[in-house]
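If it is no trouble, might I ask you for a protein's amino acid sequence along with its backbone structure tokens?
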Amino acid sequence: MPRNFCELRFAVAILMIVLVTCHSSYAARANRTSESSDSVTIVIDAGHGGHDRGGIPGQRIAEKDMTLDVAQRLRNLLSANGYRVVMTRDSDVFVPLPTRVAIANSYRNAIFVCIHFNATKRMGASGIETYFYSRDSLPLASAVHYYVTGGAPSANRGVRRRGYYVLRKTAIPAVLVECGFLTNPTEGAYAQTASYRQKLADEIAAGVRGRNSLGSASFIDQTKVARSERHRSKRSHKKSARKKKSSSKPAGAEEASAH
């Protein structure tokens, strides 16, 4: 057998070994990526519940019922996608905010999705907004908001940063999505249809799946505004209390206290 032919066969054999090794390495990496994705825990928080109906006094549609229905639909979708899903509540019960946060923080490789609907006395108010607090939560908020606003026939009220308790206290990426105004006749009617609640769940699930593939959106930072409002409120309260105390003093009281 010619020497050149033997060398050629040897080279082909080496090439085959390299190709098989590379393929096995790629498959292993793909499996690890898949396992990593499947091992993510999604903590779904249906807002309100039990004696807490949500919304504003006199509101006709109970927010607690709408949030639970969307949360359960979202759970079914994500479970079918291979995610481990945990519900902070799966029935009409009241769960305190610290308990919801404790549930979320008990999982390491997890994300927290809190579902709410908006309400206001002004019936014309409408639209969808998504809240986050930590910078690590912005990609998730951006993705969820992108998909929900893209699939819902409602105004885009933007991604907003605010220090809500369940966002501020969670140690994992966390978002709170307001799925429209139940006090708006049009959005309230949408929310009462099963097909629309399913659509909301579909889009939130798409946001969860795409949280690492979309860029971070610009956002409105309401944390400073909120702190400023609280500071003004406290300052106004103290000023009012001083005026009330001063006006309640009997005549000559200041002179008497000086001696």
